[in-house]
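Continuing the batch. This is chain 6 of the set; chains 1 through 5 are on the previous pages. Same settings as before, nothing changed between runs. Recording input and output for traceability.
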Amino acid sequence: MTHRERVLAALRRQPSDRVPLDLGASASSTVTARFHERLRAHLNLPAEPPPVAYARRNSTVIPDDAILERFGVDTRPVLLGTPDAQLEREIDADSFVDDWGVTWRRPADGHFINYDGPFYKLTDPAPKDLERYSWPDVNDLGRYRGVREWARRLRAQTDCAVVLNLLAGPVHQSQWLRGYEAWLEDLLLRPQFVEALAERITDVWVGIATRALEEAGEFIDLVTYGDDIAMQRSPLMRMELYRRLIKPQHARMVATARRFGKPVLYHCCGSVYNLIPDLLEVGVDALNPIQVAAAQMDTQRLKREFGRDLTFWGAIDTQRVLPLGTPEEVRVEVKRRIADLGPGGGYVLCPVHNVQPEVPPANIVAMFEAALEFGQA
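Output for chain 6:
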């Protein structure tokens, strides 16, 4: 089978010649820049040219083609461009303002953290406050410049599944615009504001996704976006709040991709077990990252209860096994997850979230070698 055929079979929950593999297809399944340097050195690959940046705030990059080909990775990403009119504004080497007006700061040896934003200082926000904000322009040509050419080149030069990365969802973006703590308070104290903010963010998301798919949809195999609505032990909010305030927007987002015939890979960290029926109801095809160290994320149970309807994407533990385990422990982990999630198809293997600098490169090599050994049909 071709790389693309494997991934599409997994999205249909059908068997393939081996378990398909991902590294770098999404902003939540890639590698940090510092790890990328270490992996290049470990594999004796040239240190140049510099890799393509994924997300500045996460210090992530797209892995080199040489790395992806070495490991037999079946996916390739396409990213949106940078808007022309609302460029990021540099403050200093460790802080900047993004195109939504959110200020990000980076502590020493860390990732950027949202520090300020357009709605941080509102003491009692209401839907009317959203009218005074300058929302991103969905028609800014910079967002789409080069997207079609990128996707067409991947389709012409590889037989991999091409994954279009879209913006983060309304939960993430609300937390960045408003601040995590204030937004959590708003869920209970000001739900009308939360709902209106989520709706306006989704309006922008739908507009950008629509334009991007009009530009490049013929070369795209699936789309992906992230919106974390769970924590280590439970969903982030009561299910009633999710269903009333957020779920309608997720349904709009999935429906946008569906209009173009594209499957949706949805990213949500944490304990998502109780949310899966709702995600299936809105039409999500595949779920990433399957955070196996979180509560209620037993892979045998997930496959048994949801494997007919949902594709699992991820599941190789990044909380303990990849950063702290030995290569042999990594092999055991890979064998276990393939045994749990692989039968009958419907599984794409990759790490649970982005590979951090402290992960030994030998463990990533062991992961892919084990996946090719144990993932054969």
